[in-house]
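Hi V.,

Quick status before I head out on leave. The structure for the redesign project is tokenized and pasted below; the design run finished overnight.
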């Protein structure tokens, strides 16, 4: 499994459009300046949606290129250099926006910490550095807007994790996994995340587990 987003471009695009949105409102009339918004159908909204869609497509293409290069390396290293073809290839977004139809209406769905789990769609639900991960198939639960959790999710902030855990804790919780075990990644320690098995039990009405994975190598960077 590998991950890449829009490599900071999405962040830059968002900040520029947020700045534009703030010029369109009397900010003292909003509960918070960051709640400034675009009205659908306006030029500002069209420009924002165009750039957002581009950044999400760019992120998807990043992952496709990375996977092709990874498979090329695997072909050199294993199976006597014969071409390796995966049984399935899954490329799924999380933290993204999509225009979909739900309950008879076209709506913009923001999946923050979530992925699309429409009926039959494959997805990836990763655990922490020391936990299991899952390949799933969506069940299409309309009450969840065809969504499910992207992963275990944090049960404490990065700052809190750095204060609570030590490098020795990190080594203990990632035993058996080849990964960084230095103080620079303590915020990613498994203890800072929820129990992935419990998360999967809680969303058994949203997804079907296709494969359960236990990593032996975890590369952060």
């Amino acid at each position: 499994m590998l991950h890449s987003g829009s490599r900071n471009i999405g962040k830059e695009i968002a900040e520029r459009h947020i700045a534009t949105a703030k010029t369109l409102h009397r900010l003292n009339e909003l509960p918070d300046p960051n709640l400034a918004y675009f009205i659908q159908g306006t030029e500002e909204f069209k420009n924002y949606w165009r750039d957002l869609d581009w950044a999400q497509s760019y992120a998807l293409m990043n992952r496709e290129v990375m996977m092709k290069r990874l498979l090329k390396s695997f072909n050199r290293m294993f199976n006597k250099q014969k071409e390796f073809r995966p049984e399935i290839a899954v490329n799924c977004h999380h933290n993204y926006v999509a225009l979909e139809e739900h309950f008879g209406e076209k709506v913009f769905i923001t999946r923050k910490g979530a992925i699309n789990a429409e009926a039959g769609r494959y997805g990836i639900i990763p655990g922490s550095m020391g936990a299991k991960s899952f390949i799933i198939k969506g069940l299409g639960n309309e009450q969840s807007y065809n969504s499910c959790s992207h992963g275990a999710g944090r049960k404490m902030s990065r700052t809190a994790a750095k204060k609570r855990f030590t490098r020795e804790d990190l080594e203990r919780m990632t035993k058996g996994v080849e990964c960084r075990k230095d103080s620079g990644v303590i915020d990613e320690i498994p203890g800072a995340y929820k129990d992935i098995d419990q998360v999967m039990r809680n969303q058994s009405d949203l997804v079907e587990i296709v494969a359960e994975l236990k990593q032996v190598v975890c590369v952060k960077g």
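Above is the designed sequence. The radius of gyration is 20 Å.

G. will cover questions while I'm gone.

Best,
W.
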